[in-house]
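Human: I would love a firmer grasp of how sequence relates to backbone shape in proteins. Could you go through the record with me and say what the backbone is doing? Here is the record:
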Amino acid sequence: MEDNKNNVFTEIEINASSDKVWNVLTDWNNLKEWSSSFIGISTEKMTKGERFVSYFKNPITGGILELEHVCTEYEEGIKFGWSGDIIGKVTDLHIYSIVPTQNGTTLFKQEDGLHGKYSKLLNFLAEHHMMSMYKKFNLELKERVELLYPRTKK
């Protein structure tokens, strides 16, 4: 991402292999079973350059938000990302990535930023809320993966 001062970063270590984390994260039809925010996308498999709709639970109304995006990055088992206009000329650029560790766990990372006119102000106003939502999503992903793929302690 071009302006790191305008981005939000979160990460969490998940006690599972990267392929297990990827499988849960990209099982679009079952996101709604464990995620309280991100509940699906309108395509079976993301492809770089593809347009699609993502579905999120609206935290205010309880309804569903439908946001149009373009897949900006896709590397199977490693990362995916999207971009889309959210308010006027402000564009959202969101990347999810999976990083295997030497001890067999996985770092799940999210990077998001708003870019364009007034984006610094919007990012400043929304940063706390975005950080809170992403940390919650990270924890929900961790809990789901570790529930589906439990490991015994050594």
